[in-house]
Amino acid sequence: MPLKTSYFNSGIFRNNIRRFWLITFSYTFFLFLFVISYISRITEQINRNNGSEILSDLGKMLFYSNDVMVLFLGFYPLVAALAVFSYMHFQKNTAMIHSLPVTRSTLFVTNYLSGLFIVCFPLIFNSLILIVFETVTGIPNSPYSWIWFGINLVLTFLLYSFAVFAGMFTGHLAAQAIFYYIFNFLALFLETVIRSILNNFLFGYSSYYSSRTFDAWSPLYYLSDFYRGFRSDQGNIAATIGYLVAAIIFLVSAYYLYKKRHMEVATDVISYSFVKPVFKYGVAFCSAALIGSIIVSIL
């Protein structure tokens, strides 16, 4: 009889949900407070005004408190990735986990899905509350709640996949968090530094009137503008599709990196030898560019 290999282990999945229930609970609770705050504001507006024009804009109020969602999306996907893949950073834990009678593919897929569930359940739960409330109260333009849910689901998928991807390059728990935030703002940092250098050394060049090109490449920085676009009915659909494609690329890349990862790299800052020269010269370049731009601006 041929052996069938499953890519999902329900026992590991349930164990992860039980171990890290506090992440799900806290995210659900804080997101619930955010939703309740929105519901109270929108209820107050309904009681105060009955004009159809005002009611038609109520759905857009959901996108005004975007700073809170930036904090949530910048924190909880990373925490979930750190939690479910934390064993990779400790030698005893990684040896124990990889001694289980399951393949590496099963371990990765199960841990990934459990972490994704941890960060997606609070969003799904609270979005349902929003949609039911708007349906019951008959608020016009309730599709804004669906839009809010959809783009936050895509952003959660992106940032969580990116956090898992960043964790494949290190065997240190703190380094994974540092890499996550550094890579999130790397494109923005490089663009700012290069513009500063060109502005100081290239005659006739001025970055004052030129808009930023790579803001969308730094999702956490771009989130406020991203939400603002959907609030004004000019949402960046191309960026949304790009984020979805990028999330899939990060997921597939993390899967293959995990299969090639050696257990011995636990506690190492860099887990792959081919990344070490890239990391070394990349840090040197960024440091030199930053220090150089600071010195030039002072002079």
Give an overview of the whole structure.
This protein has one domain. Helices cover 73% and strands 0% of the residues. The model has no long low-confidence stretch (mean pLDDT 83). The chain is flat. The protein is an all-alpha fold and 299 residues long. Helix 1 crosses helix 6, helix 6 (104-137) runs antiparallel to helix 7 and helix 7 runs parallel beside helix 10 (237-260).
In short:
The protein has 299 residues and is mostly helical. The protein has helices spanning 10-19, 21-48, 52-56, 66-84, 91-97, 104-137, 143-167, 173-201, 219-231, 237-260, 275-298.
- The number of strands is 0
Unreliable residue stretches: none
Total domain count: 1
Could you tell me how far the N terminus lies from the C terminus, measured between alpha carbons in angstroms?
Answer: 77 Å
Describe the global form. Answer: flat
Counting DSSP H or I runs of 4 or more residues, the number of helices is 11
Based on secondary structure, the structural category is mainly alpha
Percent strand:
under 5%
Mean pLDDT: 83
Helix content: over 70%
Q: Which sequence of SSEs, written as H and E, runs from N to C?
A: HHHHHHHHHHH
> What is the CA-atom radius of gyration, in angstroms?
22 Å
User: How many strands, what sense, and barrel or not for the largest sheet?
Assistant: none
